[in-house]
Amino acid sequence: MKKIPYSQTRRSFLSKSATGATAASILPRHIFGAPHVPPSEKFGTALIGCGGRGPGTYSQLCKGLDVELVGACDVDTNKAKRFSLARSKGKAESYQDFRRLLERKDLDLVAIATPPHWHASISIAAAEAGMDVLCEKPMTRFVAEGRAVVNAFKRYGRIYQIGTFGRFNRSKDKASILKHKIMSSGLMKDCNAVRMKKGGLKVKQWSGTPGIGPQTIPDTLDWDLYCGPSPWKPYESRRTGGTHRGYWDYEGGGMCDMGQHHFDPEQWTYAKDHTSPVEITPFAPPSHPEVTGMWAWVELKYADGFKFVMESGEWGPSYERHPVRDVSLDDLSKDDQEKIKSMPDPEPLLSFGEAVKQRKQAGGHPEAAHRAACILHLANLAIRLGRKLKYDPDKEVFINDNEANRFLNPPMSAPWRI
Amino acid sequence: MNTKEILNAFPQPEGKILRNIDKEACEQAVEQIISGGRKITRAIIDLILEPGNGDDIRPRHAIHATAIRVGGTGKEIERNSFASALASTLTDDRPKAVKGFVIRQLQICGGAKQAEAIAHFLNDSEEHLYEYSAQALEAIGVATIDHFRTAYPLAKGAPRITILQGLGVLQDKKSRPFFLSAMQDTDLEIRLAGIWGLMRISSAKDAELMLSQSLKEKGWGRIKATAYCFELAEKLAKNGQSKEAKAIYIKIKKSHSEKQDAYLRETADRGLAQLK
Q1: Which ranges in A272-365 belong to alpha helices (H)?
Q2: Nearest Cα residue to A414 out of B101, B8, B88, B187
Q3: A128 and A55 housed in the same domain
Q4: pLDDT, tens digit (0-9, with 9 covering 90-100), for B209-252
Q5: Which of residues 82-141 of A touch B (CB under 8 A)?
Q6: Complex ipTM, two decimals?
Q7: Are residues A329 and A399 in the same domain?
């Protein structure tokens, strides 16, 4: 494969025409009409986090684009080498430290599939290095990270897509479009709809195992770099390789593993991409300090009264606080129903590839991804704290609960910071 | 309820996970720990072991559950009482890994009154106690600043950047000399922490120095240092210091003339366009 001189690579073109839709208000409209990329133009790509979901996430990054893999990075050198071998016959350079990878001048697009405690820091660094990002879900480990990612991608005018794609089908589905219109119209007052997700959140599958003693760190693994921004803990193999999901330090159980898949499309359907719940009520037993565990249900109520409910179906009682019911045109007056019918359909959502080529916001853009991740984080925090929480979705803090607020932006381990 | 009965309310793993947990029994046990005061808390801490030295799943669970459940409005007395009991164990002759666990619980429920006991470990490199200590103090907040200020000049090795970063987290304006000095350090991450700290305290008068330092850095250092300059410009603009913010954006535009820096010039342009 012919190596592309940097001067002709995507980044120099992108920087001339660049900006995401987040900057639409400050740049002339015609900038979005910049010509599409010629089909012959190649993007330099890399994968950070080459185990587990890594290869699949990288394939999503490449969809519809002409790419050349230039780097593979993993804190376990074996995984990086294996991916380079599989996808570039070893031509792509292998890295253990993502900082060295991001220094490359021929890199345009980065897929991130590390455990989630690294997602935000690496996404932000990639934007700061001028790259577009497709990041595996969940977007973040805690709420403040999400706002930092949103700010970084807005600042640098880079494209971001979260690694879940259910909202793309929803945005083409007539029934979902109707609900989206009803909820985004502002005509629904005192909404009493309750959307329930029962099961599918892998509570037991991704519960952690407590009490495992320290083990010998494999030679190929940089354990300190693995821990990264999360608190350092002695090495245990179950803290890595998929079972990391069962530890608060890295993910947050099946809620965070599956929740963004389930609630990101719902969030689009019910027009909540710009906001978060205001009241979160859990039913859960006291949680363990290290590992995720059981919970029964969580109710998340928005300012307009709309509620998402997640019921584990794996422990404890069923949710019975409110009847489950969907949004309907019948909830509105005849006049308002006519207004809904005359509303234009929402803009089509752009895939990551389309967004990169057109320099427009992708369907799973940072703000939407952050708000969807917040659903999971707020639910998990209510589970962990075992009490009802009131949340200010604009300031992104809990109201009158300083101890709960400590979990929204927990200190990171140096030198990592947001 | 004695200690054993309290702890038996918490589950042991079945099939590796804590699947059979009794919410009501655990919550009753937490109430017993709270009402039992310092004696019962210390008795449970006595059962916590160094990782790998035996089964202490229940005591850890019980202490954490209590640290969580004393949080929130209206629980100030219980919270302070429990946090004081936890902090009292930090002066005992206990394994450092156990003290690390206790400090992490104080990150959840500790307050200014426990800060001194926690800060004792800011320069202790064993078992990452410096890190746990700094993070607990950062969570408690600005009331702990003096402890970071006192500890930083004495810091060597790994604790140094952690303490410096803590001063940045707490946005301590009086630490400006520390941040300025750190910018000249031989260690890249210390230099970056210095620039970041100046950004955190919105030090407009140091913008020129920060920009100059960012241009001296290469690779990762340059990427991050430039990012902190952009963040400083945004903070200044938000504070109404548009003139100072504008100067940063213009300097970045002028000083990043290479082709690969075009995205930085675009970023500066966006910043300039947003200034009022």
Answers
A1: 334-342, 352-358
A2: B187
A3: yes
A4: 999 999 999 999 999 999 999 999 999 999 999 999 999 999 99
A5: 99-100, 102-103, 105, 125, 128-130
A6: 0.97
A7: yes
